[in-house]
Structures are given as structure tokens and as C-alpha cells.
Amino acid sequence: MMSITDVLRRVEEASAEDVTFKHLEQIRKSKFNTFITVAEDQSLERARALDSGELKSGGRLSGVPIAIKDNMSTTGIRTTCASHILDGYIPPYDATVVERLYAEGAIVIGKANMDEFAMGTSTESSYYGPTKNPHNPDCVPGGSSGGSAATVAAGEVAISLGSDTGGSVRCPASFCGVVGLKPTYGAVSRYGLVSYANSLEQIGPIASNVEDVALLYSIIAGHDPKDSTSVEVDTEISIDRDVKGLTIGVPAQYFEGGINPAVESAVWDGIHHLEDEGATYSEVDMPHTDYALAAYYIIAMSEASSNLARFDGMRYGLRTEDKDWSTTFSEVRALGFGEEVKRRIILGTFSLSTGYHDKYYLKALQVRTLVKQDFDLAFKDVDVLIAPTMPMPAFRIGELVDPLSQYLADVNTVPINLAGVPSVSVPCGSTQGLPIGMQIIGRYFDEPGILGVAAAVEHGIGNKI
């Protein structure tokens, strides 16, 4: 795997065009299906403009290629959300995060593969085929940002962006052995992110190391007038991996319910390492965790049902033979959406329907408040919470065919999105050649704090994996 520093050095020694060309060459040889669209012409053109001085250089990512999850708008580069219904759609504008990356000299080299409309835990639901895990091509890379994590793990790019609605940055980071951050809700603009579940999702950085994740976060974070949910945050992040005096909370509920023994052992090794470095830990009770998964899926599917109503084949994307409006609308959605997307739309529509809205959707919102209160209470006594990112290492492609099995895999990640707090997944071990990630959860807008703890884990045990 590469770091930003490695790439910047190569740019200085050669040129942005040379570095971009070599990245493209490696992506062409890839056997992992990490990209849906490779922006060869656009990336080389931008690299030449940086080399010639036509574009301002000297930014923190000047000449550094980056992969963007294929649910973020990119001018002139196809954006499909891994769905047939958006095949051929080219946005006329850039997402705010892409604008901010361009301002620092980054080069968008392509759009990374993902679960269709970010709905999944394995990147198997992509219309463009599953992404493979670079550690074992027979296994999934996690999801829904599987391509974003796998391309970093494969050394095809140093950095990428994913989105996290219920674990979609942290899950693939864990499965692929890289670092992935789910920022506090509102810390990063969602303008230009194709919506799945507005109240839950955040764009987050993925990289091979904590320092690069911190740099990426500092670039993309901050208020955006185009996103009313975004807020001003301190983007000057100084990582301090000194954990002396740190108090760690270990939620008992996150270690229950079929956690793989190797995963549990590796996470405890990470906790004990922090203890050796001067931190202390205690068990904390988060009693509403058991209800979080059900509440999350009701809320997420309900919001998806509303958001995905805009994909009708009338204005962009897939279009069938014109008939009357109702027939054309039905045919486009039947042909354009995959099975998992259809399932979530149907379940979400049911949850919002007359007679069931209060029973399901409203009840889920009430549970969400209780989950948030669990975090508020826990953080009165501890600085961070630590738990396994995923209950198991990466599973084999095609192994979890039952949708419910994949939903259950999100048991440790969805409470964080319900509460809106930040969380970072960092490698802490491996089993049978597959990485294991631990997640470090913090108070609202304490990204510097959790990244510092992640850096301590990375420095102490991450380099020994």
C-alpha cells in the first residue's frame, strides 16, 4: 500500500502525468474489479495541467490520484451508483468534497465500485459485478464502499472517498485492512452525494494509514452553504498518539451475539496495548444497542423509499420504450433497480404507509433517540468507546445469500450512524490472512481524539500485522 507522502515524492521526482499514468497502468491490470469508471482522459489532462502550471499547484494533494465512490457527482465523469438505472449518467457538477479535493491539487482517477445505491455490506449487489478482496480474491471487500477500500488495499491508489450510512466506510476498511473514518454527522458536506438515507449518511476518507485519513478529513470537512446540515468544524488536526490518562469504554453489547473469537481476541489485544501505554478501560452498558439494528433499517429503508422515487427514467439514466407514463415508470424501475434496492424500497414504503407509519417509522425514531442517549451517558464517564468494527473477518463471495445475514453483520456499526457520532476503523490484527478492524468511537466532533487513539493502535500493533 502507498501513502500520500510516497505519491508526492514520486510526483516531485518525475511528474504528475507520469505518476497518474503508472496508477492507470496498475488499475488496468487489476483483478479486483475496484472501479466502475476509470477517468483516463480526464485524469491525464488534469495531471498535464498541473505539471504545466495551467492549474495552480502546491496544494496538499498536488498530483495525487484519488478514487471517488461512484455515488458522488463528478463533472464529466460517469456516476452510476453501481446501478443499471443510472448507466450513462454524467453529472453537470462536482460534489463539494470533489471541489475541495481539486482545490488541493488532487486528481480524480476514477469512480470506485460499490453496492448498488450504497445498499449492502459486501459490494456484491453492484450491477457491474462484485469487487474482490485484495487479501483473498475469493472473499468480499465489505460494503458498500468496497471498491474504495479495496483499491487502497491493492496499492492502486493511496487514498479514496467512501460514504457511510450504516458502516459503509468502516466495514470495508475492516475487511481490507485499511483505515476508514465515519465523521460526525454534519462535519462533511453531503452536497453532490446521491442520497440513500439523508439523516444517516456521511462521506468519509479511506487510506492506508491514520495520518492520511486525518489529512483527507481536514480537506473535505467544514461548512458548505449548499448543505444546510453541514457545520463549521476545526479542520486543523494535530494527531497526538499519547494515550496516558485516556479512559476507554468497552460496550459489553458490542462483544455479544456471535462475535468471531479471533476478532474479539484481536480487539482486546488493541485495548490491552492502549492500557500498556497508559490508558484505562472499563465496561459500559449501552442497553438499547439490541434495538438499534431494527430501528436503523426501518429509518434507512423509509428514507431510501422517498429518495429513490426521483429515478423514473424521464430525465436521465435508463429509458425504455415510451408508453404511457405509469407503464414507462414501472418498466424503468423494474429493469433498472437490482433486487436488494427493490427490497429496501418496498420495505421502506410499507413502513411509511398509512396505518403503519406510527407503528414502525415513528417507533424507530423514538428508539434512535434512546440509542443516542446511550452514547451521551457513556461519554460522561469515558473519552472513547472501543469495539470490533465487524463481528467477523471478510466472508466468501456468495456465502451470505440471505439478506438478513448481511443486515445482521452491521450490528456494531449502525448505532454510530443513528447517534451521529464519529468512528474510525483501524487494523488491529488478522486471522487466516484476513484483516481485523477495531472501531474507536468518540464524542461529537472529536475526530482529532479518535484519530489520535487510532494512531496509537497503528503505531503499536498495526505495523506488526
Mean pLDDT: 95
Q: Order of strands across the biggest sheet?
A: 1-3-2-4-6-5-10-11-9-7-8
Q: Tell me roughly what share of residues is in helical segments.
A: 25-40%
CATH superfamily label of the domain at 4-220: Amidase signature (AS) domain
**Biggest sheet layout:** 11 strands, mixed
Organism: Candidatus Methanogaster sp
Protein name: Asp-tRNA(Asn)/Glu-tRNA(Gln) amidotransferase GatCAB subunit A
Keywords: Ligase
EC number: 6.3.5.-
List the helices and strands and how they pair.
Blueprint: H1 4-13, H2 16-29, E1 35-38, H3 40-52, E2 65-69, H4 96-103, E3 107-112, H5 146-153, E4 159-164, H6 170-176, E5 179-182, E6 202-207, H7 210-220, E7 247-251, H8 261-276, E8 280-284, H9 289-307, H10 325-336, H11 339-352, H12 357-378, E9 384-388, H13 403-408, H14 414-419, E10 423-431, E11 434-441, H15 447-460
Helix pairs in contact: 1-2, 2-3, 5-6, 8-15, 9-11, 9-12
Keywords: Ligase
EC number: 6.3.5.-
Organism: Candidatus Methanogaster sp
Can you give a write-up of this model?
The chain is of the alpha/beta class. The protein has a domain of 217 residues: Alpha-Beta Complex (Amidase signature (AS) enzymes), CATH 3.90.1300.10. Helices cover 39% and strands 14% of the residues. The chain contains 15 helices and 11 strands. Strands 1-3-2-4-6-5-10-11-9-7-8 form an 11-stranded mixed β-sheet, with helices on both faces. β2, α4 and β3 form a beta-alpha-beta unit. α1 crosses α2 and α2 runs antiparallel to α3. The longest helix is centred in the C-terminal third of the chain and has 22 residues. The protein is globular. The two termini are 14 Å apart. The model has no long low-confidence stretch (mean pLDDT 95).
